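Usage example:
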Amino acid sequence: MTYDIAVIGGGIVGLSFAMQAVEQFPHLRLLILEKEAGVARHQTGHNSGVIHSGVYYQPGSLKARLCVEGARAMLEFCARNGIPHEVCGKLIVAADTEEAGRLEDLRERGEANGIAGLRLLGPEAMREIEPHAGGVRALQVPGTGITDYALVAAKYAEIAGTRGADLKTGAAVLGFQNSAGEIVIQTQAGDFQARYVVNCAGLYSDRIARLAGHDPGLMIVPFRGEYYDLVESRRELVRGLIYPTPDPEYPFLGVHFTRRIHGNVDAGPNAVLAFRREGYHRTDFELGEAMETFTYSGFRKMARRQWKYGLAEFRRSLRKSEFVRSCQKLVPEVRDEDMTPGGSGVRAQALAPDGNLVDDFRFVPRERFLHVLNVPSPAATASLPIGREILKMVEGKLNH
Ligand SMILES: Cc1cc2nc3c(=O)[nH]c(=O)nc-3n(C[C@H](O)[C@H](O)[C@H](O)COP(=O)(O)OP(=O)(O)OC[C@H]3O[C@@H](n4cnc5c(N)ncnc54)[C@H](O)[C@@H]3O)c2cc1C
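Running the assembly step on the lines above writes:
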């Protein structure tokens, strides 16, 4: 049989799209192809679990709009489906007066993005909220929440399934063939036919675009984020979420403390270049994938500009004492012995040929494909509106 749409990737983005597509078009024949034995095994199952409010993102960007809408939608979805979640609020802490100046800008940005309730706090007020936080000032973001995105994605998959979508696991996509009006998708689990393909393959989305014969115009570069867990007896040091003031020169949010929805507290993630796309451990290395990164002109340009950050991240990854020092800027009482190695995740970050990280979400339609090529954080938060946007983009194609 020929499916109307095949979705490649059973992560939170592909599943959100699949669920909304079969909800809106009950007769749609939709197939989800996932290479692992279950859904949410990569970025979706290895993240901080934060429902971001949207303060950080450039006003007018897709990230800003879809994050603000997505946070509301995520809280409603979790409430409706019995998925554990909590609006615990967040403090973004300034370590010194220079960072305090940047917090003002951040508040303006957040307000421009439509976020209500942002408050700049002095040391006393901030310690009423987080008694152990360090720093000279803080921006309170009261609407930030937490959840478990693996559970959210599993629910998307369940709803999609009950509405008729087929999910094939263990079905790594290996290639495509065009044949009169349809695409033959070759997978480890056999061939499937579809009229349209939505590529949501996360860390491999650029590779899938190339397999389809399309130049993605960028490369996915994997950045591993490592976490440490606070030992149980010291969890009281953190009530909600404590983040640093972001460095405008640095593309990631910086190591932060996160109270998880299941009760533990962790610190992380750092951002270390990984030598394998699914390289969750320091020693993971895959020659072909590492060479692909190193020989990419965009990577070499980025490395020339950002090598100091890169080296600092490697040092912080190798030396726990450096990691703990970053954490002490946020919570001075935290000590080396309070932290034990935790999990890790790998970010699929798109890098442009000019050496800049692609900042905004990026969707690239080509022939019978839509390639979802850059959906890093806050895409878990924004997954419902992202799925809806993809649906808007492919809706017109369904009748051809
Ligand atoms: C360390 C870390 C912390 C983060 N923290 C947050 C946060 O707090 N809040 C937030 O909103 N966002 C956060 N994010 C971002 C968020 O997790 C991602 O943006 C989101 O999960 C992306 O979902 P996805 O479906 O695109 O990718 P994925 O979840 O990676 O899914 C892609 C899927 O495609 C499959 N696939 C790949 N290749 C093939 C193939 N050839 N054939 C078939 N299937 C294939 C993979 O197995 C995978 O299941 C974080 C990310 C990381 C890594």
